[in-house]
Structure formats: structure tokens, C-alpha cells
Design a protein that fits this description.
- The structure holds 2 protein chains of 2 kinds.
- Chain A is an all-alpha fold.
- Chain A has 11 helices and 2 strands.
- Chain A has a two-stranded antiparallel ribbon with strand order 1-2.
- Chain B has 2 domains: 38 residues; 235 residues, Orthogonal Bundle (MetI-like fold), CATH 1.10.3720.10.
- Chain B has 12 helices and no strands.
- In chain B, α3 packs across α11 and α6 packs antiparallel against α9.
- The two termini of chain B are 47 Å apart.
- At the A-B interface, α1, α3, α4, α5 and α6 of A face α1, α3, α4, α5 and α6 of B.
Chain lengths: 328, 287
């Protein structure tokens, strides 16, 4: 028991010192093994989640060709018709609108914070972005219901219908406010903190000497940014946007609350949609008695998982190369 | 050569600056608008009963009661999930730093954590429910805690990893040079040095956990009673918001806004607390 005291042993006999060292080394080895075991958890978790989803989705994946499932337009679980196309298109539309709305503003904010802003502006902006990232999804949903849906219904819808109504993508056929545009706006706000934070980090990897060289030749700041800084970090910015898109793809509750949830193929940004994540959230856990229904919903989850993992891994590789945190 | 302020490039410079400032104001203003919406709609429906009572008969038609069951349930869920996640993520973060450093396996683990972070919570929820069905279990507090722990694990570990990476290498080397084992460095030097960062990471993960609805939707269920056992279903605040908003009764919807207000306040407190604690405790670390 005397080995427990780290300060004593050196002053005592060498045999005890030896024993003490051995105990410490043994503890170190045991801890190394235990820690190693725990680090396996993240890697195993990915494998387990993917495998379980594949196994549980297998009944439906094996019963019909994948193209049937992915391109089928009819969703009638009671007739065993599971066409995912409306849901896939719903997800794509909402995500696209969200990303298109978010990207310009996010890039400008990130550039401003990285290149122009004073220290004091940055110290104000950071907590704002942190708070935006911390707000729960349902709260965004409440905000969407109370503010965005009426806004789309009363102002944006009529405006677009009046001036751009001849373009099919902007025509308003069901004026309720619920739909892709409302979902896209909410998503844009939700993914903004992530895109801004990543872009900011990417921008701050550009060495200051480059900027100074450009400025000393007489270029304006914006010329420096657009011709020296941005071309250098373009892959990183694309990775930031892809990361934001992958976050948008899987966002469930906030979108579910404002997007209308009608399983039809959207043709306009004012149409209602039914994204994959909303499909799972609304139907999973009920109606387990219908054959293949549960497998169909889990294959929707699997589809979402695979797409998001591909997006994530690609953007992580690009970002790791740029930010140099961990090289592979 | 004299500067011509009306040259095209200077006009572009000014325009871009204005647009950028406008974007910054737009983003900041959106946060303000969200908070304002929640406060404006939440405050009128707030009352003492909301915080101290469970739903009574006819609650979902606008009669008496509160959402204490959801508040307690959410605190249990997020608290349990955070503790469980901490137990796993602290060793991972320490192992990444003290034992692995920049090695290949370390970068694989980091990649795995980033991928896990990106997986949507609805997929975790579906996964958790699929496991529960295979094992013949019903929705319960324990299942909710485990799924939330899985969601919080990558958030917490990556946040800790970020701060631990920032620790000066010399501190660690000094400890190793006087004969400490790696374990002793990890527990007695790194953990203490990084305490503010660790606390921030824990609070960040807690905030993420308490606000997540998609994962507890299938795994924790919903009930009007205060949960007393790990194996019973429990209510949670995000789901209380979600369910009450779907009601046709305006009084019930108003309570949904109040629940959203309570949830936002909890998240804001946690978020500010993290900031405050990390700056307070940050004074005592070696930079």
C-alpha cells in the first residue's frame, strides 16, 4: 500500500523504489489497453449502425430492384408500394434552397470576420454564432411556424407570384406558406453558424505575407481577397458548404414542422415537400404491422446515412489537408 | 500618384464592405428575431403551474397543469447522457493526445468521430429503436439516455480534443522528463490543465443533448407522469413543444410556446455558463 504515495519511495530502499516503478508501469500498461478499448467505440459504432440498418432494411432491398425503390413515385405502404422518389426530391429541394440561401451571406460574414473585422467585432460575433448553433431544432421549428410560414405566405409568395410567377419554379399553387421555401429559410439559418465557423478557420490558414505582398503592390483589400486569398482556399470553402449541406440533409424536426409533409413530387419552391428525415420521424415506431414498412423506413434511414457519410468524409479529408489537424 | 476614390476598384471595395456588414447584421438580427419571437410568444403563457405541475385531466384541451414531467425528464435524459458520454469521451480524448499524438490510428479515430458527429440524430433514433425492437424492449429513460450519450460522444470528444491539442507540448514533456508515466501525464497534468476546456465541452454536449427531439422521439417515448424508474418512458421538453404545437386548441399551442421558451432559457444558461466558466478557470492554466 505504501506505493500509493508518490513522494516517498525515492527516499526509501531501492527494492521498494523498484516495486513502485513496476506498479506505475503496470498501471500505465493497463490504462493503455483500457483506453485503447474505449477508442474503438467510435469506429465500432459506425460499423454497427451501418450493419444494423443494412440488415433491417434487407427484406425490402432484396425484394425489388434498387432503381424501383429509388425512382418509384407511389408511396402506399398498405399496397406494399414504396417509392422513395418524392421523399428524395423533397430532401434535395429543401437542402438546395437552404444551401443557396445560406452560402452567399455566410461566406461574406466569414470573409468580413476573417479579413476586415476588428477584434471587438469578432468578440461580439462569436457568441452570436455560438448561440445560433446552440438553439435546439424544435425552437427553430417554432420560430419557423410563427414567423417564416406567415412571412412566406403573406409577403414572399405573392411577391414571387406577381413578378416571377411565369417561371414554374417560383409559381405559387397552394398558398399556405408551408413548403420548401419556408423549410429552406429555416435550414439556411440553422446551417449558417457551421459554414461561417469552418470558412473562417479555412481563411485564417492563409499566411499574412501573401496578403501583405498583394496589398503592397497596390491592390485593394477586396482585390486581395478575391484574387489571392479565395483562390487559395477554394477547396476548403467548398468543403465547408458540403459540410453545411450534409447537416441540412439530416435536419429533422425544424424542417418537419414547416415543410408541409405531403408526399408528392415538388415542382416549385412554394410547393409542399416531404423530406426523408421527416418521413422517418412521422411514421417510424407506428404501423409495425404492415409488412416491409419498417424495412422501408430503415432503408430511408440507411440512404440518408450513406449520403451524409460520403459528404462528411469528403469534406473532412479536404479540411484536414488544409487545416492540418490530423494528416491521413 | 494620387489615389482616385472613384476608381472602379475602390467603388467595388466600398460596395463589398457594405454588403458584408449587411450580411453580418442579417445573421445577428436573425438570432435576435428568433429570441424575440420565443420570448414574445412564450412569456404570456408562462405561469408558476407550468413549472411546478404535471399535466392534469384535460391538459391537452387547455385545462390545468404544467410540464414539470417534461422538464424533469429532459434534465434526466440530458444529464444521464452527458455523464455516460463523459465516461467514454475523456479517455478517448486523453488517449488521442497522451498516447497517440499524430499517429495514423489517431487520425482514423478523429475521422470516425467527425463522421459520427455528422450522422443526423434521426438516424441515431431509428438505430436505437431498431435495436430495442430486436431486444424486445419498450421506450424508456435508459434507452433515451444511451442514444443521447451516443449523440453527445463525438461532440464532447472533438471539443475536448481541440482544447487538448492546444496545450503547450512543453508542459507534457516536462512531466515526462521528470519520470511520469503516460497515464500520470494524462490524469495529473493534461486533465488539470484542460479542465476549463473539458467543462466547456461537457456543457456544450449537454446543451446539444437537451434540445434534441428526433433521437428521443422513439427511444424515450412520452408520458404525463414524472419518471421514477430507468425502465419507464419519460417526457422531454423538445417533444412537449412538438406535440403541443400540433394541437388545435390555442391554449395548448400557447403552452407549447412557453415550453419552447423554457427550453431556450435552459440552453442559453448552459451556453453562457460554459463561456463564463471557461474564462474564469482559464486564468489558472499555462498558456
Amino acid at each position: 500500500m505504501m506505493q500509493q504515495k508518490p513522494s516517498d519511495p525515492l527516499s526509501q530502499g531501492s527494492g521498494q523504489t523498484q516495486a513502485f516503478l513496476q506498479t506505475r508501469n503496470r498501471r500505465d500498461r493497463t490504462a493503455r489497453k483500457a483506453f485503447f478499448g474505449i477508442t474503438l467505440i467510435p469506429v465500432l459504432l459506425i460499423i454497427v449502425i451501418t450493419c444494423l440498418l443494412v440488415i433491417r432494411a434487407w427484406p425490402i432491398l432484396s425484394s425489388q430492384p434498387l432503381a424501383n425503390l429509388m425512382l418509384g413515385e407511389v408511396w402506399k405502404p398498405t399496397n406494399e408500394q414504396f417509392g422513395f422518389l418524392p421523399f428524395i426530391l423533397g430532401t434535395v429541394w429543401v437542402t438546395l434552397v437552404g444551401v443557396i440561401l445560406a452560402v452567399p451571406a455566410c461566406l461574406l460574414v466569414a470573409i468580413y470576420l476573417a479579413e476586415y473585422a476588428r477584434r471587438s467585432t469578432r468578440t461580439i460575433a462569436k457568441p452570436v454564432l455560438d448561440l445560433l448553433a446552440a438553439i435546439p431544432s424544435v425552437v427553430y421549428g417554432v420560430w419557423g411556424l410563427l414567423v417564416i410560414v406567415p412571412f412566406v405566405d403573406d409577403i414572399l409568395g405573392p411577391f414571387f407570384h406577381r413578378w416571377l410567377g411565369f417561371v414554374p419554379v417560383f409559381s405559387v399553387t397552394q398558398p399556405t406558406g408551408f413548403g420548401i421555401f419556408a423549410g429552406g429559410i429555416v435550414l439556411a439559418v440553422m446551417i449558417a453558424p457551421l459554414i461561417i465557423a469552418v470558412t473562417f478557420e479555412v481563411l485564417s490558414t492563409v499566411p499574412d505575407e501573401l496578403r501583405q505582398a498583394s496589398l503592397s503592390l497596390g491592390a485593394t483589400r477586396w482585390q486581395t481577397i478575391s484574387r489571392v486569398v479565395l483562390p487559395r482556399v477554394l477547396p476548403g470553402i467548398i468543403a465547408a458548404v458540403v459540410l453545411g449541406a450534409s447537416r441540412a440533409l439530416g435536419e429533422t424536426m425544424a424542417v418537419l414542422m414547416v415543410v408541409g409533409n405531403v408526399p408528392s413530387i415538388p415542382t416549385s419552391i412554394f410547393d409542399t415537400a416531404y423530406p426523408l428525415a421527416a418521413l422517418i420521424a412521422n411514421n417510424f415506431g407506428e404501423m409495425m404491422s404492415i409488412p416491409l414498412y419498417d424495412a422501408a423506413l430503415l432503408s430511408a434511414a440507411l440512404l440518408l446515412l450513406v449520403i451524409i457519410m460520403i459528404f462528411n468524409i469528403l469534406s473532412t479529408f479536404v479540411l484536414q489537408r488544409i487545416l492540418g489537424k490530423a494528416r491521413i | 500618384m494620387k489615389k482616385n476614390p472613384f476608381a472602379k476598384r475602390h467603388i467595388i471595395e466600398t460596395c463589398m464592405k457594405v454588403i458584408m456588414l449587411a450580411s453580418l447584421i442579417l445573421v445577428t438580427g436573425t438570432l435576435g428575431l428568433i429570441l424575440w419571437t420565443i420570448i414574445k410568444n412564450g412569456i404570456p403563457a408562462m405561469s408558476w403551474e407550468m413549472l411546478t405541475q404535471v399535466p392534469k385531466g384535460g391538459f391537452y384541451m387547455g385545462k390545468e397543469g404544467g410540464i414539470l414531467n417534461a422538464i424533469i425528464g429532459s434534465l434526466y435524459l440530458a444529464g444521464g447522457g452527458t455523464v455516460l458520454a463523459l465516461v467514454c469521451s475523456l479517455p478517448i480524448a486523453l488517449y488521442l493526445e497522451a498516447y497517440l499524438g499524430e499517429s495514423k490510428w489517431g487520425s482514423y479515430v478523429r475521422l470516425a468521430l467527425d463522421v459520427l458527429w455528422g450522422i443526423p440524430t434521426i438516424v441515431y433514433g431509428a438505430f436505437g429503436f431498431a435495436v430495442m425492437v430486436s431486444l424486445g424492449l419498450r421506450a424508456s429513460l435508459l434507452a433515451g439516455i444511451i442514444v443521447l450519450a451516443l449523440i453527445e460522444l463525438p461532440i464532447m470528444t472533438r471539443a475536448m480534443d481541440e482544447v487538448i491539442c492546444r496545450m503547450p507540448l512543453e508542459v507534457e514533456q516536462a512531466a515526462l522528463a521528470v519520470g511520469s508515466t503516460r497515464l500520470e501525464v494524462a490524469l495529473r497534468v493534461v486533465t488539470r490543465q484542460m479542465l476549463p476546456g473539458i467543462i466547456t465541452a461537457v456543457l456544450l454536449a449537454f446543451g446539444r443533448g437537451i434540445g434534441d427531439a428526433a433521437s428521443v422521439l422513439f427511444t424515450a417515448g412520452y408520458t404525463d407522469r414524472i419518471v421514477t424508474s430507468l425502465f419507464r418512458p419519460t417526457a422531454s421538453l423538445p417533444l412537449a413543444v412538438f406535440f403541443q404545437l400540433g394541437s388545435p386548441f390555442p391554449e395548448v399551442r400557447a403552452r407549447g410556446y412557453a415550453a419552447a421558451f423554457i427550453l431556450t432559457v435552459i440552453v442559453l444558461i448552459v451556453s453562457f455558463g460554459a463561456r463564463l466558466l471557461s474564462s474564469r478557470l482559464g486564468k489558472y492554466t499555462i498558456k
